[in-house]
Amino acid sequence: MEEPILRIEHLSHRYNIQWAVRDISFEIPKRGIYGLLGSNGAGKSTTMNIISGVIKQTEGSVFIKGIDARKRPVDAKRHIGFLPQKPPLYGDLTVEEFLYYSARLRWVPANMLKSAVEDVLVRCGIAHFRKRLIKNLSGGYQQRVGIAQAIIHKPEIVIFDEPTNGLDPNQIMEVRHLIKDIAQERTIILSTHILTEVQATCDNIMMIEQGKLVFMGTVDEFDNYIAPNTIYLRMGNPPTVEELAKVENVQGVEDLGDRKFRVRFENAQEAMDSIVKQSVVHDWHLSEIRVEKTSLDKIFSELSKKIQ
Ligand code: ADP
User: Fold this and answer.
1) Greatest CA separation for the chain
2) Which pLDDT score is estimated for 1?
3) Of 62, 85, 102, 167, which residue is least crowded by CB atoms under 10 Å?
4) Rounded Cα distance, 75 and 61, in Å
5) Which backbone phi and psi does 163 adopt, to 5 degrees?
6) Which residues does residue 61 pair with via DSSP β-bridges, in sequence order?
C-alpha cells in the first residue's frame, strides 16, 4: 500500500507543564490545500513546527512519505518546505543571494542551484527584484521571497503559517493566487485563524482547538458537520418562547424581539411543518418563515466558544 504524504499519530507536545497539542492523529492521503484552522493559541504553530522538524514532539509520531521524522529527520526534511509566521529573511542580502543561500541550506545539488533559483524567481514573480536588498522590498514581496525559499528544493509538502497575516487586500489576493499555483504540484498545509481564508484557498479543513483535532474534512463537510442552520420566524400574535419551544421538532428558540424568533431544529422540513400547523391552531399569525443558513464564520466562532 502506498504511504500517505503525511501521517500523524498520537502527536502531543508540552511546553514546560502546559500541553499545547494533545493526541492529534490524521493523514493526508492526497495532494490538495489543507487549512489548519483554529483560534489563537489553539496549537497550530506548534503542530506545524513539529511537522517541519523545527521542534521535537513530546509524544507521538510524524511520518512524511512513510519516513519517521524523529528517526530520520534529514530525510524527512527534504520533503518539507516551511514558511514560518515571521519569514526567515536576511534583509542585507539581495533576493538572489538569499535564494542561493536557501537552496544550499536545503541540499540542492551544486549543478542545480542556478535553475532552482531561476525557477522560484519566476514562479514567485520576483525576478525583476533579484538584485534588490530584501529589506527594501514591501511586505508583500518579502512574503513572496519567503514562499520562494520554502519551495526552492521542490518539497512534496509546503507549510505556511498564517501566510497572509499583515498583508493588504491586494497582496492577500496575490499570495493566495501563488499558493494555489504551487498546489498544482505540491501539498500545501496552511494555518489560519480566519475562516474566510480557508474558504478562499483550501479544499480541506483540519480544525484544532485547545490542542485537539476537532474536525477534518472538506469545506462542505465542515458546513454540514456543524450545520446549525436555523429557522427565522415572524408572527403577528406570537406565543411565548416557552410555548414555541414546546412545538414538536423544535429544539431551541431565541427571541429576537419585535415578534421575531430564531428556532433550532434537527430536520428543517419537519420543524417548519409543525410550526405552521401550530400557528394555525393557535392563531399566531405567521407572516414569515424561512431557513437561515448560518455562515461558516459564525459556526466557527460558536464552535470555538463551545470547546473553551
Ligand atoms: P497557535 O499557532 O494556534 O496560535 P501555538 O501553537 O502558538 O498556537 O500555541 C499553543 C499553546 O502553546 C498556547 O497556549 C501558547 O501560549 C503555548 N506556547 C506556544 N509556544 C510556546 C513556548 N515556546 N513556550 C511555552 N508555551 C508556548
Assistant:
1) 83
2) 67
3) 85
4) 15
5) -65, -20
6) 9
pLDDT for residue 94: 98
- Tell me 110's DSSP state: G
C-alpha closest to that of 137 among 102, 165, 98 = 98
To the nearest 10 degrees (0 to 180), the angle between helices 113-123 and 169-182 is 130
How does 73-100 read in b/e, with b if 16+ C-beta sit within 10 Å?
eeebbbbbbbbbeebebeeebbbbbbbb
Q: Are 232 and 262 in contact (CB under 8 A)?
A: yes
pLDDT for residue 306 is more than 60? no
Q: Hey, which of 46, 85, 193, 206 would you mutate to test ligand 1's pocket, going by the most ligand atoms within 8 Å of its Cβ?
A: 46
* Mean pLDDT in residue range 166-192: 93
Helix (H, G, I), strand (E, B), or coil: what is residue 68? strand
Q: pLDDT: is 200 or 130 the higher one?
A: 130
Q: What is the pTM of this model?
A: 0.78
Q: What are phi and psi of 64, to 5 degrees?
A: -110, 115
Q: Retrieve residue 266's grid coordinates.
A: 434537527
CA of 13 to the centre of ligand 1 (A): 10
> Does residue 189 contact residue 163 with C-beta atoms inside 8 Å?
no
CA of 55 to the centre of ligand 1 (A): 12
The sign one gets for the Cα dihedral 184, 188, 192, 195 is positive
Which of 267 and 142 is assigned the larger pLDDT?
A: 142
